[in-house]
Amino acid sequence: MAQSVTRSLVHPNIHRTVLDNGIVLITVENPAADIIAGRIFVRAGGAWEAREEAGVSHLLAAVITKGTEKLSSLEIAERVESVGASLGTDAAADYFLLSLKTVSADFPDMLSLAGQIMRSPTFPEAEVELERRLALQDIRSQQEQPFTIAFDQLRQAMYQDHPYALSSLGTEATMSGLNRAHLQRYHQTYFRPDNIVISLVGRLTPEDAVDLVNQVFGDWQAPPTPLPTLTLPKITPQPHWAKTPQETQQSIVMLGHIAPSVKETDYSALKLLNTYLGNGLSSRLFVELREKRGLAYDVSAFFPTRLETSQFVVYMGTAPENTAIAYEGLRTEVERLCTTQLSDTELQSAKNKLLGQYALGKQTNSQIAQVFGWYETLGLGIEFDTQFQEKITSVTPEMAQTAACQYFIEPYVSLVGPSEKIEIQP
What we know:
- The protein is of the alpha+beta class.
- The protein has 15 helices and twelve strands.
- It is globular and about 60 Å long.
């Protein structure tokens, strides 16, 4: 077979191969341990769901391992457990994922099993109904958790009609309406070789990896119909307040700002600001608002890596009587990033923390397979691993301040707590 092979210039042990049927294969040879980890990504997930079918990726991930044309749910489980392997599935906003890990000798069998699951799932009616009921239970239980209520409220305010507005579970209404036919249609649309990235890391050569993947997936041909084009609604910033009264023992105060996707210029500067503000016990929010002022039960920030427009969120759990002070404290700390430039020492400390955590996140074969497969799936390529670290290193205090001034303008605000305590005004 004629394949296109690329070797990373920065990581010579990383090979990228495009198979004849369009599958992109990333191989990292790592003979240190007798383990092979695999990640099979599909360019699908929450962003590809129709609004009325929100949650279909999650339901498909829960049911896809419950039976194939040749194997029952029990037979699949026994094949995995009999050799001490692990196999699981997940659906995120920007991808669908099948993960596997096993000792080298058993890897061909596990990859073959993964191939059956990916290519010929049967979605048994009883399993679909069971997993749908479990998902509905999860949705209802989340509606009792103040943090989840606040985040759902914030996300819907920020993203409006965009798929990122909803959790991976969808809503009670959309999950209730899903059935086997929805799963079959979604699978038929997106599970095709020219929409798949396979990332393998461990004790196998690139040549062996290509042979193995061709044995399992080589005869899988893409249908003649083109892949659907992902067209998403434009996000128009309209910052406002959203409040949910709930008789809780603490108020949740959450501020959100529209933020860049992973492909935009300011992504790395915002990652550093997120680390500085809300990452760990030495972060600015933790020290200023919890340690010094005693306001917070819990305080942090997060800025998820997204293929499309992301969000920069700071939040605090606080005593209800401190709701107004907590809001002012969070807002002041975010706005300070625009009015006051970080010192070289503060920025360098954030860089050290972020790059150190990044390195720690690539220690195991599974972690390495995840990182490189994910970058390829997002269209960033395997070189992004090095580019990301270089971009973080090159961020200056001026760049960080400019990014803060651009994105941290008027926040979206989400409040959950006792009704009389969250009646604060902007």
